[in-house]
Amino acid sequence: GTSNSITGSSVTRAGGGGGGGATTAGAAGAGGGGTGGTDSVAATNGTANTGGGGGGGRGLGSTQNGGSGVVILKYPTAAGTITIGGGLTGSTATDGAFKITTITAGTGNVSWS
Predict the structure, then answer these.
(1) What are the pLDDT digits (tens) for 66-76?
(2) Contact call for residues 32 and 67 (beta carbons, < 8 A)
(3) pLDDT of 79-109, one tens digit each?
(4) Alpha-helix runs per DSSP H in 24-105
(5) DSSP letter, residue 108
């Protein structure tokens, strides 16, 4: 995974999924990766809103899904007001002289005024 501080605190995202194995599976990568599966333990999905990879399957279950991604927009408060389209799920916070808009799901448009 990779970490950044765009939201004001360091967060790790995009961790790799662990590989599957007969008796020992790969660990989840830091940043939302899923654990790999074995002949007796199912693999896990990547964590939502991190873009982490899904764990590799083996025996007990199939390879799992990666976690959904996230869009983070950081812009000066003076840039205006952001409008998130009705088909999007998101929120906006203020961090000093900046606003941070986080979009976690949906389809639609984003605009400023």
Answers:
(1) 999 999 999 99
(2) yes
(3) 888 999 999 999 999 989 999 999 999 999 9
(4) none
(5) -
In a 3-state reduction of DSSP, which class is residue 1?
Answer: coil
Of the candidates 69, 76, 61, 63, the residue with the CA atom closest to the CA atom of residue 90 = 69
* pTM over cut 0.90: no
The burial class, CB within 10 Å (0-12 / 13-18 / 19+), for 32 is buried
Contact 52, 1 (CB under 8 A): yes
- Kindly state the tokens that stand for 85: 């389209």
Cβ atoms of 37 and 58 closer than 8 Å? yes
Q: Which two tokens stand for residue 48?
A: 């939502």
Burial track 59-78 (b if 16+ CB lie within 10 A, e otherwise) = eeeebbbbbbbbeebeeeee
Give the separation between CA 106 and CA 46, rounded to whole angstroms.
18
